Amino acid sequence: MIIVPEFDLKDPGHASLDAKAVEPQLPSVVNRVEIPYADDPPPAYNAPASPPPPLSPSLAPPPPLDVRPTNHFSLSKPDGRIRGSYVIDPSLKIPAQMLAPLEKDETEKTRRNLSLHTHDGSIDANVWVLSDDGADCKCRGRVRVNVRTEDGNVGLRLHSTAPNAYTPRTPIQLSLRTADGHISLALPRSFTGPLTIRLADGRKRFSPAFSAATTVFSESHGVSRCFVGDFANSGWADAPGDWTGDEAEVVSDDGGLRIEFDDEKREKEICREEERSENGKGKGKGKAKGLFGRLMST
C-alpha cells in the first residue's frame, strides 16, 4: 500500500493530485511461483522398467570334489568297458610330453579335450565341462568330446558348470558312436546348437522336456537333423559353416537312442522328495489326530 502525503489542495503551489494517478501501474500479467510444501506429493516421473525375474538355477549335479580337473584326456582300450567321471578344464595347459599321440583325424589345433575309446565294451561316463567365465564369447573355443565303441552300449551324461542358458559358457562339440549298442545321452539344459542323429537300425526317443526344446528339420533314411535350443535367435542359420557354438553327432549302427537333459533326473528326485514330505506331513497329522481322539475317548 502506498501512502499519499496530505497536501493542501487549496495551496496554489501544488497541483491537485488525483489519487489514481499516484497508484503504481502494475502489469496485467503476473508470474506466480508455487513453492511446494513438505506434504505435497513428488512430481510425476516415468518409473524405470522392473528388472526381469531371476533365472532359476540349474539342477544339474556339481562336479565331484574327488576328481581333479584335466584337459586333453585320452583313454583307449582294446577291450573292456570304460566307466568313470571326468572334469574337463579347457584352460589347463598340458605339456606336450604328457599328451597321447594324435589320432589320424586330429591336429594340434583340433586335439580333443576328452577321448574315450574301447574296441569291445560298454562306456558309462559322467563328464563336466568347466566354463571360462573370464574369456570373451568370441574367443572361447569349443571343448571337443569324442566317445566311441565298436561293440557295446554307451551311457554319457554331459554337464556344464554354467547356472543357466543365459550365462556364457564353453561350447561343446560332441561326437558319439557305437557300432553295436544302445545309447543313453544327457545334454546340458543350456545346450544350443545342431544335433545330427544317425540310426541304422533303431528308434530314437526324446524326453518331453528335450523334445519341447528341439526343432526337427528332417528325418530320412535313418538320419535326423535337429536343432536344440532357440533356433530363431541363435544365428546358426546365417553361417552354419562358421558356427562356434554347441554341436553334437550321435551314431549307432545297431541300436536305439534316448536323449534327455542332464538335470531331469534331479528334478524328478526333488518332486518325489516333495511328495514324500507332503505325504509324511499328512500321515503325521492323521496319526496325531487318531492318538488325540483315543486319548479324548478314554
TrEMBL record:
Supply the Pfam families for this chain.
DUF7330
Residue spans with biased composition (Pro residues)? 39-66
Q: Where is the composition biased (Basic and acidic residues)?
A: 269-281
InterPro entries listed in its UniProt record: DUF7330 (IPR055754)
Please list where the region (Disordered) is annotated: 32-78, 269-298
Task: List residues of the DUF7330 domain.
Answer: 71-264
Q: What is this protein called?
A: DUF7330 domain-containing protein
Give the classification, highest ranks. Answer: Eukaryota, Fungi, Dikarya, Basidiomycota, Agaricomycotina
